[in-house]
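Usage

Read records sequentially. Each one opens with the input sequence:
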Amino acid sequence: MPKTTMSAAVIPKPRTELYQYPKYWAECYGTADFLPTSRVEMDELGWDSCDIIIVTGDAYVDHPSFGMALIGRLLENQGFRVGMIAQPDWHSKDAFAALGQPNLFFAVAAGNMDSMINRYTADRKVRSDDAYSPGGVGGLRPDRCLLVYAQRCKEAFPDVPVVLGGIEASLRRIAHYDYWQDGVRRSALVDSTADMLVYGNAERAIVDIAHRIARGEPAERITDVRGTAFIREDTPKNWMEVDSTRVDRPGRVERVVNPYLNTREMSTEERQRRDAALAGVQTEQRDAEKGQSLQPESQPKLNRTKTVVRLPSFEKVRNDKVLYSHANRVLHLETNPGNARALVQRHGDVDVWLNPPPIPLNTEEMDYVYGMPFQRVPHPSYGDQKIPAYEMIRFSINIMRGCFGGCTFCSITEHEGRIIQNRSKESILAEVEDIRDKIPGFTGVISDLGGPTANMYRIACKGRSIEAACRRPSCVYPKVCSNLNTDHSALTEIYREARNLPGIKKVLISSGVRYDLAVEDPEYVKELVTHHVGGYLKIAPEHTEQGPLSKMLKPGIGNYERFKELFEKFSKEAGKEQYLIPYFIAAHPGTTDKDMLSLALWLKRNDFRADQVQAFYPSPMATATAMYHSGKNSLHKVSYKTEDVETVKDPEQRKLHKAFLRYHDPHNWPLLRETLKRMGRADLIGNGEKQLIPAYSPDEGKKNYRAPRRKNSAKPHQRRKQGDILTQHTGLPPREDGSDINRVAGRGDKAKGNRKN
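and closes with the structure output:
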């Protein structure tokens, strides 16, 4: 993958910081205890109408880990009257008119998780529950929730603008592969008939949009906000359009054959200027690849702020899997806000235009957003009904956003981005005290200080200009980048100060630890292991073999072994009996039956028995999903001759890969025996220490038969910890990749949304 861009640049600053906007006139109404969910509550607040109405597929929990609550409180702080319609009955428009017509717009989101992943398992089976609903009851939101809600809003009030947001909008902003339909669907913006879509962390975009609509600017004319998508008929004449509608040619994705100004007729002089600009850009790219210094003044350059990359149309990517893989690759190359260009994709007779990603929030803005007056509890209308996702995160704190790990099965890049956004130490400690003093049932234990990962707080590139120019998909693969500052001291300091606050008994770290990063700072590992592990620590090697690891962009198992040594050393020094819980993925693109056999043998050698396993779940727009759909490796230049990627689509093969992870389950032995014989590895069948599964016993089919278990030298309590809970269900909501194991992070939160690490 390319490491530099056409020119080094620093991420631009926003025109206005979030807290600098003049307040809207309705600020005189003050702050509501809860955002109103009914006309009765509006009347109690003295409101005759709402300025903005948020419609969400999640229950309304006034907590910063729930994305729509965070957005609602932010808009309220800007002076707007904000109403909340949570999990409405979508069978008619009536529920969407419950608060009356909003003065400005509807803000629609499916919730903290893509609604299809929320509803269906990786095997396309309907889930029986929903962690974001009162009582954990499933079925309270429709499939493809975003589309249905937006259409109902338009049905209720046709003239009111509808703005889409949340993770479902982020993952479906362009033509995307839909696992449940097994085909490519159009952008959610087109199918929903909404006026605008905001993707990524939406605070900056939604505040700007709200103030501009409030000033009387029509929604259809707001086309310059970063992190937004909208529909237009053609490219403006003052833009340079880069043609990337065909598969990659030799060289960079940006080295295109036919970039053109979007005018139907070009003069000779215009064409010459265009060709000269392109030649300068390509020369600069070659110099960058060779490590030569650039001379900006000697070569003409394209103006990135007026350059748009045209992707293959929806119709083309729907019918050509290789073109789909190419489009996915181009999109992921345009995710760094420091160098990303606008993208455009034709859908029928209109263009879906995507502006560059939003500018990350600085620390002051993060403190401002998380400092809103959240009640931190569910809306009183739910009574005693428990909301599982809330129960999980009510004593946890988000200290940062984003992830530069670049795991291909993860949705963080598409949603939160690679650049880490940090809160200040003072803001974090103030929230710890807020939980201590206000939250019912608090026992003195903070359940997590984290985010998408546990240990990327205040870690960034050593140079802002280098960070802004980088186009690598990962800062830690195949090894930790030499430009990455891996100092964990700021995080260690927060851990120490938080646990020493009066009334705080313990601070646990439940977010997934990026262990290949942690080993770069042994002092952090010591602090973590000595004081912040509640007996078990989850990490995610995902696999042991290079085939699938190279498609995941995950480090080799050697990094796990290094971390394990430190973990055991510091646990022993602290006099604590603690255990690592590693997670693994079955059926990921690039995984063969032989790879899964090797992983199963590794698990047995290390005496791990997985109670539950996770199978790869193709979430919309992820790089691994493009591999799954196309069978091509989009981590490299895409062509019809590009490396083919092993994909596991057949249900029986997916079942086999999961069976390898649960080699100890007697129900899997018949399938594994048959497979081992087919693979020529019948030597692994038997009761020996080095054999994977026992030989067939005539008693195996009997009703009360108990499978023989391999002897374990550990004591009973140790055996339970070492084996049976390896991937035990933790009560956490499903991850964005579909597994039921790791904690997840949504739109700047720690509720269900994105894959951890």
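Summary fields computed downstream for this record:
- The CA atoms of residues 58 and 111 lie 5 Å apart.
- Confidence is low (pLDDT under 50) at residues 1-9, 250-271, 280-300, 707-757.
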